[in-house]
Amino acid sequence: DGVLDVEVTTGSVETCASAANQRDAALLLSFAPVDGLDGLRLHYWASYRSHSRRGDQLAGEIAGELARTGVTTQVQVTGMALPVLRETRMTTLHVEHGDLAGSTLLEVATGMARVVTTFFHR
In Å, what is the CA distance from 33 to each residue of 4, 18, 70? Predict the structure, then answer.
């Protein structure tokens, strides 16, 4: 039906990961502001031995969507072994962002929502 069930959880990495795991969530998006960052960094789980294919795909599709829609902010996609990525069982992206004000914030949020909706409904 195209409707996403969204829950916002704040707190430590452990709290957010545990809440998502307990709910059997399909996706966890973790957001963190980074002073001085010009753009977005989309991180998915990756280590020397494995990586999240779904996380990599989702991050790539979000980056592609933002590029297609003309979002003027820089977007980087990287695999990392951050605690929030390591401690979750579902597809997880950790999004680091700089100051996204006004129309750029709306464009990024709209693009991400569009990709997430189609990603999980195909």
Answer: 24, 22, 22
CA–CA distance, 29 with 50 (Å, rounded to integer): 20
Number of C-beta neighbours around residue 53 at 10 A = 11
Distance of CA 9 to the CA centre of its chain: 14
pLDDT in tens, the chain (122 residues): 444 566 677 778 888 889 889 999 999 999 999 999 988 999 999 999 999 999 999 999 999 999 998 887 889 999 999 999 999 999 999 999 988 877 788 899 999 999 999 998 87
Tokens of 15: 């709290």
CA angle 114, 29, 21 (to 5 degrees): 125
For 100, which DSSP code?
A: -
| Alpha-helix residue ranges (DSSP H) falling in the chain | 13-22, 53-68, 83-86, 102-119
* pTM beyond cutoff 0.85: yes
